[in-house]
Amino acid sequence: MAKTSSPKKEHNSFHSYHQFDQINGLHPFQKACPDSFVPYQARVRRGGKLAYFNFDLAKEMGLIDQEHPEKITAALSEKMLETFSIIIINEFDQINNRQFPAEDLKPNAYMATKYLQLQHPNKTGLTSGDGRSIWNGVFKGNGKTWDISSCGTGATRLSPATAIQNKFFESGDPSISYGCGYSEIDEGLSTLFFSEVFYRNEIETERVLGIIEFPKGISINIRVHQNLLRPSHFFCHLKQGNYQGLKNVMDYYIDRQKTNGTWTDLPKTEHARYDYFLRKMTDVFAKLSAKFEDEYIFCWLDWDGDNILMDGSIIDYGSIRQFGLFHHEYRYDDVQRFSTSILEQKQKARYIIQCFAQVVDFLKTSKKRPLNDFVKAQWAQDFDASYSESKRKNLVYKLGFTKEAQDFILKKLVVELEEFSKTFSYFEMAKSKKGIQKVADGINCSAIYCMRDILRELPQIILARESGLEIEEFIEIIKSNYASAEDLKENQYRNKMVALFQQQYIELVERVAKNQKTTIRKVLLDISLRSALINKYERVTGDSITTIVHKVLKLKPKLTPEQIFEVARDFSHYQNLNPDKKPNKNRADGDKVLRHIFKIVREYREGL
Amino acid sequence: MKLVLYSGGTGEQNRILDRECLSLSGKKFPKITYIPACSFDSEIDFKDFVHQFAEFDITQFIYFPIDIPFDRIIMKEAFKSDIIHLSGGNTFYFLNSLRKSGLFSELIDFVKRGGVLTGLSAGAILMTPTITTASFPKFDCDENHDGLKNFKALNLVQFEIFPHFKKSTRYENELMNYSKKSKLPVYALPDGSGILVEDETLKFVGKTYLFYQGKKCTLIK
To answer: What is the pTM of this model?
Structure first.
């Protein structure tokens, strides 16, 4: 299985990069929402070099042509630096009357957007938002509109450091970290590896277009999404009672969803559009809560609506994790406070929708009613219904049933599935008797069972034996490295649950076989094939991403941007666990860097 | 001893060998374990393998990657199968993983117990005394990423095989030179060809060429 690579076309120096010229700081948000950003003049930042470029994304956007070789040409590198290697001229520069060569100044202003952030002392969003990012602008290509922003382009007045210390900082000020306006290459690479894996697995996310590297590990990380607005962009105006500011953001957002073809059945009247908006948001956040729980994705949602985009896409990978087991007691330690846990994400998502219900009512009536008035509105029922439905869908998918079988179970075997879900949850939620322990960046009480292992192996074993597992065999398969002897001590209740798990599982299989007028063996075989991929032994975790990035950084002096692109692409392909979409091409298992990466993923597969 | 050594190729090309393999098992619907050479994306190959046998109405399969940790439950079940298939892939990696997994002797015992062991390409080479044939010719060999030095394999047969053989001067020269050094006969098999071993009997399916002590002989055209 020697490495295969598709023949690459020779570099054609006539590829045009004129599309980059669209990205010039100007953005329709500036005109539509004048209360929602701080404009900054920007200048060329020298000394950078392109460390990574996402050819796939650039082609998807229409930024480069489809035939462009996967090679960083001198012209491409120059264009990327010209477009994205910038630094803002901030308040510190202005106060100190710093002068810059005229040829270094960019013609248009770039915006740092305002949004609510809980870590700011002012809890209304007056002083918070993009603390070290600016929006490079908007790009229209291949029938879509894309927002592009860069992290690490200098310290803005919206950073927590400025708000807390009541002073403006020089960009790159070594006396502070987060508030200095710079970002680091490991952040860019973490985001790159994580987001590409999520993207492949249809988990909505921001993506990395490029990384520009400067000395001492400093970088500008360029992110792209079709709409980079967050709920917190709305909530700052809501908190301030700024009707017009809120309406501007709302109308802007709805229009973008329409022009991007995301919302195709948008009503015509204003009020109906707002109601439609609320229904959509309810659905998005209910589904994402279920998805995050079921895929063990830890995303620190909170009342400010930060850390997530409006369509539920993940943004800001600093605290994002994917657990190998259901570590539902894990909390990230953010120095002043602990984060929410994975199970609390749902309540926070619900709260975000409650705020949107308040937003919509405010916009429809021009009166801002108390948030508590919206606790028991229609949205709450919709949210719960959508969440429950998603949980069922996710479970039946994870079990490995084919689409036809999934539909049948979701329609006809809801009660049976719910019962199985309770048994499944018993094992999934089981935690270590050691209790809460300190971990590298927070606290956790470890989960002890690996549900993915039993879902992968059980159908094969039943298929081979035509009977289930003995109790000790079941535990042998499901136990994780976190389980101590104490945790695994036999007890009657657990024995009963082992039997129940298999009984309920087999019942679902039998009912599907009966419905499909086929044999139980055939159903189990279908499940085996799908589950082998869905519940692959090695799935990426937050810990593995951190270690992979260390490895790549260690190798990086020798790794070209093209090689990083290839590694990230091959890695995300290998982590594509969708049996319906996994393409059988671009095998790259022989690559040395990749083989190191696989080993890391394997080693950390049960971690945080 | 029941072995089937596949050179490679598509399911279509290997249909006769598949049939022979099922016949060797002595069962109409045998249980088959699939051991991939490398777990990377092997779920896809496993799926193809299952589909290949679907036309014979075989439904009992076990997917058993051995380069990742495995539990004894699935291992025991795998070795209770009627047929174990070693897939194609990087021969060096496969041999190394097999050694590390401690399953070398298990596989030999499986064969001694009457189980049918089959292998495709790398998997087939593993059944022979040595995997040297995976290391040449330079223009078409497996990469020895881990620098494996001990090439000793399962040693179930007293010949070597060269899978994916293409009838051309440069391949033939390579094999001719190698056969001068090797004490064993080397069977060169184009895709779709294979060798069935039942106790002491060899049966060749498809085009087969023998290279031995610097001479070439066409066994089946």
So the answer is: 0.92
